């Protein structure tokens, strides 16, 4: 069974930029609506993602926290593009930067479109209580704040957040 243990953070500076090893543009959409997830009607999110000429389908449990069930399957690019444009609730675009720091792989997502200005770092861990480095550019942890979940950024993009929400000072339900 697939399990993802991931912590998500705001960024406290741009020091990570000089450490980027590679970047990739991504587009993703959800086949199970964010509204169904927020209303408690869905047990999982079902996402299609495209990066370059690679595409995959991802199923992730709709649970709060750093540990969730996750399954990912490669799919044909043409199928993914059809799913994104015909069956998803909207398309989220971002540039994912890959950064290694003190032995840890950080994925830093710089969002585009209505989510421009939002930049978050994620680090996957082998266990919930695993130690991880805390570079000075890593800010407040937002792993359990649902507004930062990609599935919620389609229905309630960063552009619509209050100043307090953008600063991570206010946690509102999505």
UniProtKB/TrEMBL annotation:
Species in which this protein is naturally found: Luteibacter jiangsuensis
Pfam families from the UniProt entry: CYTH
Annotated ranges, domain CYTH: 2-155
Enzyme category, top tier: lyase
Annotated TM spans: none
GO molecular function: adenylate cyclase activity
Name of this chain's protein: Adenylate cyclase
EC number per UniProt: 4.6.1.1
Keywords: Lyase
């Amino acid at each position: 069974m697939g399990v993802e243990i991931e912590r998500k953070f705001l960024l406290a500076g741009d020091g990570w930029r000089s450490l980027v090893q590679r970047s990739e543009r991504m587009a993703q959409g959800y086949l199970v609506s964010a509204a169904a997830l927020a209303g408690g009607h869905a047990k999982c999110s079902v996402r299609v993602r495209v990066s370059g000429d690679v595409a995959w389908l991802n199923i992730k449990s709709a649970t709060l926290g750093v540990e969730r069930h996750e399954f990912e399957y490669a799919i044909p690019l043409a199928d993914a593009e059809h799913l994104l444009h015909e069956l998803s609730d909207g398309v989220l675009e971002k540039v994912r930067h890959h950064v290694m720091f003190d032995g840890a792989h950080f994925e830093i997502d710089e969002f585009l479109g209505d989510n421009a200005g939002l930049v978050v770092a994620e680090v996957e861990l082998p266990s919930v209580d695993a130690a991880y480095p805390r570079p000075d550019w890593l800010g407040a942890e937002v792993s359990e704040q649902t507004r930062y979940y990609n599935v919620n950024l389609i229905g309630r993009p960063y552009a619509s957040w209050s100043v307090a929400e953008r600063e991570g000072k206010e946690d509102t339900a999505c």
